[in-house]
UniProtKB/TrEMBL annotation:
Protein name: Uncharacterized protein
Highest taxon above the source species: Eukaryota
Length: 250
């Protein structure tokens, strides 16, 4: 497939969308199977349009069109399908089973569409996946990250998804990824005070310990230069009787 620059490709997407809104013909030189420099086809950009169904309805009529075509590229991108992008971009108009989108598809590193919804604080996306039986809270990617880890990575300060995930399965909050990080470690790394205060106030208590490098959550906050988070976590560690051998004056 011919590769073209991303900015030109996105411009073409917007151009095509305008064509469909006016009920004009598709430009004869266009191919929906063209890859851009990120390994994406038009399918992967649909969720960025204001009315993606118009274009998707047309693409579904084309011979050889695959709504679940996977993105090419590096490990962080490879294997994403339209479902991943819908969740990433909070595209509610495509939260449907109508088009045969594989909602349980996984990327090359094992990340599912629900992970991307959590990352983007996409509550409607997660509720949709739960409704159709595709919210698999037990799934992990190659880094051992669960949905709560992904939420932390998104740097969110809206707690709607965090509260939702607690009601779905509060055990996720105490699980470690392969670095030994729980939600508390991740929130410390991201300097997320709002999320951290909320998590520390849950019952049953969320537990954490040393990560694979021997660091506690308070250590990670200190390494980030986040004094407020470090002090809060030190108090919590002391109150819970957790012994931090790295506890030094900073």
């Amino acid at each position: 497939m011919k590769q073209i620059k991303t900015n030109k490709f996105v411009h073409d997407v917007n151009h095509l969308h305008a064509y469909f809104e006016k009920h004009d013909d598709l430009p004869p030189s266009y191919s929906p199977f063209t890859l851009d420099s990120h390994g994406c086809t038009l399918t992967h950009y649909l969720s960025r349009l204001s009315n993606p169904r118009i274009l998707l309805d047309f693409l579904m009529t084309l011979k050889g069109f695959d709504v679940n075509i996977k993105q090419e590229g590096g490990r962080g991108f490879k294997g994403r399908n339209l479902g991943h992008w819908i969740m990433r971009n909070n595209c509610e108009s495509l939260l449907t089973q109508e088009y045969g989108i594989e909602w349980e598809a996984r990327t090359e590193d094992g990340s599912c569409t629900a992970d991307y919804a959590a990352y983007s604080n996409n509550l409607s996306g997660l509720i949709f996946l739960e409704k159709i039986g595709s919210l698999k809270t037990e799934e992990r990617n190659v880094y051992g990250c669960n949905l709560v880890h992904w939420w932390c990575l998104g740097g969110n300060d809206n707690l709607d998804v965090l509260e939702y995930l607690w009601t779905v399965d509060f055990r996720l909050f105490g699980e470690e990824n392969y670095n030994g990080h729980t939600v508390v470690h991740k929130l410390a790394q991201r300097r997320n005070l709002k999320g951290l205060v909320w998590v520390l106030g849950r019952e049953p208590k969320v537990e954490w310990g040393e990560d694979e490098g021997g660091l506690w959550a308070s250590d990670l906050a200190r390494l980030e230069g986040w004094g407020e988070g470090e002090r809060l976590l030190k108090v919590e560690e002391e109150e819970r009787g957790l012994y931090n051998k790295n506890d030094i004056d900073s």
